[in-house]
Design brief:
50% strand; 0% helix; 112 residues; globular; mainly beta; eight-stranded antiparallel barrel
């Protein structure tokens, strides 16, 4: 079962702006495309904050095996998460919502 952690809108410059929400966190994020400097380097950088940007993670473009759809595999860190990264998938909605939301950040808890 996937849990929605955030809602995002794709901008004309290829970036995504939105809100990440958990029980303890409610923050604006910007996901910005970046030039790859190496094969394994991220395709996106994730920033938090309004005005001042603080890097909190990265994202890699992926293609879903079953559907062939492209999504962004996000890796986000914050002191509130402790030593663990939060991993989520930024997936495109079939139809944007009335308020312009075009993508969701989905998290699937994993058993340890």
């Amino acid at each position: 079962m996937a849990i929605t952690l955030g809602t995002f809108t794709k901008q004309n410059d290829g970036s995504f702006t939105g809100l990440l929400k958990t029980l303890n966190i409610n923050t604006n994020l910007v996901i910005v495309p970046t030039e790859k400097i190496a094969e394994n380097a991220p395709d996106y950088r994730v920033y938090a904050g309004n005005g001042n940007r603080y890097e909190v993670g990265a994202g890699w473009s992926q293609i879903a095996k079953t559907s062939g759809e492209t999504y962004i595999n996000l890796k986000i860190a914050a002191p509130e998460f402790g030593p663990n990264w939060v991993r989520a998938r930024l997936v495109k909605l079939e139809t944007p919502t009335e308020d312009g939301i075009s993508h969701l950040a989905l998290w699937e808890p994993r058993e340890r």
